[in-house]
């Protein structure tokens, strides 16, 4: 009788562990209400679902056993389960792919890129856009056009200055090398500003055409779209690593308590300066802004009505409770739904494994005790 229940007990433990693995790998998403968003719009096959992640902080060949055998395993499961459950159409990484990219040789950077491709798995078959962060590039004094061009060339859609533009399902995205915008008289900064000016001209040209078409429809008595084409929010969706707004004291204490990745080139409160922020708003009129760097999720509206979402890190190297953002751009273009998706805490996963080990050890001791007593 005593022998019969032992296989059943072992099978129960293994089954419970497998179920737990599947459960903790699935994201838990909550829709974030916003004044200029549409959290109640019905889904449509032509909606564009974009998964926004940030601060992966990959170590490449410098990764220890904890990262290689434990954290990377779970992060790849997080990506795979998110892909299966949310069915996104595109993946955006808002900087800091590498934990110490600015210090790496090209050979070590290649190992980081290989780790990145293994991590995102099924997303390699989807449109992918990567923004460069301060850990990828370093501080202003360390930037060189040659190194930035080499790193940018490893990711799709980026020019030699680390900027990019793409359009998918009638949604225009624009990414900037925000690190270069922190610099003074720097060649890279001038390159980014030239990119912004070119895109600004394209935006003005496009809205002038739309405005002319609207005026023609009005003259012939039609009922055309009467939205002001040069108003704030008429430009592309802006993607960048540093946020455009000043952080609060509450953010400061939270970030200090939750950051595990060590200090980067710029602290977690760093943001683009006011003049760069005003220049971006004036030139690009962004529809929305997605930023990162802060290691916290937040969503807020700027004074001109532009909505900015700060994407949390998707890495246990950054904090105990990683997460990401799912943005759904609705078919009618004006409506957007934002969801914050949380992932399992590393501490809870470790605690689950410890409980299983303790249970198995107790089981072994319990089953051997009768044999020891009978042998006496």
Describe this structure as you would to a colleague.
The protein is of the alpha/beta class and 376 residues long. 41% of the residues lie in helices and 16% in strands. The chain is built from nine helices and twelve strands. The protein has helices at 5-25, 65-86, 106-120, 134-137, 145-152, 187-219, 249-258, 274-284, 346-375; strands at 28-32, 48-53, 90-94, 128-131, 164-168, 171-175, 237-239, 288-291, 298-301, 307-310, 323-329, 336-342. It has a six-stranded mixed beta sheet, with no helix packed on it. Strands 5-6-7-8-10-9 form a six-stranded mixed beta sheet, with no helix packed on it. It starts with a helix and ends with a helix.
Number of strands: 12
Secondary structure category: alpha/beta
Number of helical elements: 9
H/E topology pattern: HEEHEHEHHEEHEHHEEEEEH
- What is the molecular shape? globular
Helix content: 40-55%
The order of strands across the largest sheet is 1-12-11-2-3-4
Mean pLDDT: 82
For the sheet with most strands, the description reads: 6 strands, mixed
Integer-rounded radius of gyration: 24 Å
Strand content: 15-25%
Extract low-pLDDT stretches: 215-229, 247-259
Summarize the structure.
The chain is an alpha/beta fold. 41% of the residues lie in helices and 16% in strands.
Helix-strand blueprint:
Blueprint: H1 5-25, E1 28-32, E2 48-53, H2 65-86, E3 90-94, H3 106-120, E4 128-131, H4 134-137, H5 145-152, E5 164-168, E6 171-175, H6 187-219, E7 237-239, H7 249-258, H8 274-284, E8 288-291, E9 298-301, E10 307-310, E11 323-329, E12 336-342, H9 346-375
Parallel strand pairs: 2-3, 3-4, 6-7, 7-8, 8-10
Antiparallel strand pairs: 1-12, 2-11, 5-6, 9-10, 11-12
